[in-house]
């Protein structure tokens, strides 16, 4: 005879495992998307260095933050979180652009 408690405990584990598999897939997609984003921004940094443009563009950054905060709100994601995440990415991109400018200078 099967113990009812054992079956009840097994079901949430299978559900949890399915959730975790989905999370793992999303995390992998995020990493690939970020890698592609940084490949493109690296090319932008090299272009800016060759064209003697500044590494940062505060006006564009602010427009992007506003745009992505609105997208986050539409997607039921905390706009503050999205801004912090984007700011982190932007700061890293600027650091790469500054490095590219220094290498050309």
TrEMBL record:
It comes from the Bacteria. Residues 10-101 form the Chorismate mutase domain. The keyword Translocase does not apply. SMART domains: CM_2. GO terms for molecular function: chorismate mutase activity. InterPro entries: Chorismate_II_sf (IPR036263), Chorismate_mutase-related (IPR051331), CM_bact (IPR010951), CM_dom_sf (IPR036979), CM_II_prokaryot (IPR002701). Its EC number is 5.4.99.5. It is an enzyme of class 5 (isomerase). Keywords: Isomerase. One of its GO terms (biological process) is salicylic acid biosynthetic process. The keyword Metal-binding does not apply. This is chorismate mutase.
